[in-house]
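User: Teach me something about this protein's shape.
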Amino acid sequence: MDMDRQHTESSRRDFDDNLDFEIDFYRAIIEKAPDYVEVLSVLGEAYTRKGLYYEGLKIDQRLTELRPRDPIAHYNLACSYSLIHKRKEALASLRKSIALGYCDVARIATDQDFAWLHDDRSFHRLIRHICKRIIKQTSV
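Assistant: First, the predicted structure itself:
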């Protein structure tokens, strides 16, 4: 095995070990405080980074229950649905996020969580809708 490959495998193991520690740490907090929004947010992100998309989805669903008017919570839920290829649910959550005020069109258009939707007409309509709203707000 060459040195570059050994280093890459060692780095990957370290990353996985750190991520496992992080997940275990946040889970322990959530066991004691199940509605701790900030910890739920980082736990959901950690699950997603680990590739545990269904676990991340459960966290994002819980966050939208706890914060139903939070556009970022709905955006993250849209990402989770997209990662498991639930088109209808991803677009519905993204619409909700936009309706609640999310307007980072550059982020939506380039977010790799939505990569498989980049050719979807409904996805493009949502982006156009945000652009129109931004133009309308800035022209007032």
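Now, about its shape. Helices lie at 3-32, 37-50, 53-66, 71-83, 87-99, 105-110, 121-138. The CA atoms of residues 37 and 47 lie 15 Å apart. If you'd like, I can walk through any region in more detail.
User: That's plenty for now, thanks!
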